[in-house]
Prior knowledge:
Structural class of chain A: alpha+beta
Radius of gyration of chain A: 20 Å
CATH superfamily of the largest domain in chain A: K Homology domain, type 1
Number of domains of chain B: 1
Order of helices and strands of chain A: HEEEEEEEEEEEEEHHEEHH
Strand content of chain B: 25-35%
Largest interface: A-B, 36 and 42 residues
Number of strands of chain A: 15
Order of helices and strands of chain B: HEEEEHEHEEHEEEHH
CATH topology of chain B: Ribosomal Protein S5, domain 2
Helix content of chain A: 10-25%
Largest sheet of chain A: 6 strands, antiparallel
Strand order of the largest sheet of chain B: 1-2-3-5-4
Radius of gyration of chain B: 20 Å
Number of helices of chain A: 5
CATH architecture of the largest domain in chain A: 2-Layer Sandwich
Low-confidence stretches of chain B: 248-257
CATH class of chain B: Alpha Beta
Distance between the termini of chain B: 70 Å
Oligomer: heterodimer
CATH superfamily of chain B: GHMP Kinase, N-terminal domain
Shape of chain B: globular
CATH topology of the largest domain in chain A: Ribosomal Protein S8, Chain: A, domain 1
Mean pLDDT of chain A: 90
Shape of chain A: flat
Amino acid sequence: MDGSARAKRQVVIPGDVVETHGLKPGHGTFVEGDTVYASLLGIQAEHEGYVDIIPLGGRYIPQADDEVVGQVVDVGPSHWLIDLNSPYPAPLHATESPWRVEFGETSKFMNVGDACIVRVTTVDETKRVQVTMRDRDLQRLTGGQIVEISHAKVPRVIGKGGSMISMIKSFTHTEGFVGQNGRIWIDGKVDDIMNAVRAIRMIEEYAQSLGLTEAVKAQLEGVYGKQGA
Amino acid sequence: MEDIEHIEKEIQLVDANGRRRDGRRLDELRPIKVEAGVLKRADGSAYVEWGGNRVLAAVYGPREAHPRHLQDPSRALVQCRYNMAPFSVSDRKRPGPDRRSVEISKVVSEAFTAVVFTEQFPRTSVDIFIEVLQADAGTRCAGITAAAVALADAGIPMRDLVASVASGKIAGQVALDLDKEEDNFGDADCPMAVVPRTGEIVLLQMDGHLTESEFDQAMRYSMDAAKRIYEMQKDALRRRYAVTALEAEAAGPGVTA
């Protein structure tokens, strides 16, 4: 990355004035009078004509079309209640599941503690969340492990165009899925899973550092040798 | 009772040079140290040392509000628990909420409700825990100062941080940031919390009596000091996130290349 990108990585604190340079105020900002202020602790960034504050922490708030890793916390006769690692648990109705579920037989398909990949379909103004499992690669998860990271660091784990996660997968020969809610599912051999988790923890810790991809690559090469091993 | 009155005559809160017992001038704060992100399990946390005060603040949320009947379908609740450790004062404090800590919890949660964007998180609650480990007068101000940093550390959207400080009257003179002796043997204590960016007051209490002009002087001292505290809070947050960058550099050339 060049010097200008580095200069833009500036930590802002709630109440700080945000220089917009003629751009529109975006996520994590608010306007009072003619001035734009930051409402979040985060890093100022410019994206598609908006000035955003990329949060450094905080809870995941569901948004429509997010694909997330959920966990069943309650089962009703015609729905499951899915925890999305957010303040708002989401009901998954039996008709939104990939199976043909008779009334009262929901627990034959998924039970409390089971994990699944779901997509958020709608979120209304009182943050009532609807989710679905009716699509390809939305499924109940069996085997593997789930790692939780801050949702703010998900883009770093995925990398540009999925580069980071596909690198981890190909080095460690694991399968996995990164949910927008910060839950990551990894499946493979136990040792490989542990190495993938280590790489993810490294990304989590150094999420704001430059040259992260190279550092993660170096670490994985230390374990598996040069790519292709 | 007799004994206390005896001490009151003996104790000299301000000397002939206008210096206080600990050498401070009337408009001087005690030494303050603010640290952000000290607890791993909490969503956000902060630790404040303020003279003899040691206060820990932890923030959780926004999370599902329990019990459910407390949920507000249009906004988040900001709940606060102020608690003093049994060992925080010289005589052991009976643990558990008492009249004083219930009141402080209430006014602190109201102060933060004014700055948090509660409408962004309907049906949830943001929970603030203030634990006083060691008390030396002005614990609610230290607690609010810590809680504001903890809220920002938890990634909760706010209009601004909140800075808090007390002013009072000792030996007939208005003074900033009273310590234990000055609070016990002084004439008045007036804690306040302010939104530094706008000058909005979100908490104002008074114990004792001040004349109008004394009150104005106390507010001038507090407002001025709040700005200094605000800088310390911001500095603590910046330091917290600068640390991650430094560690990355130390980890090896590959990380920062």
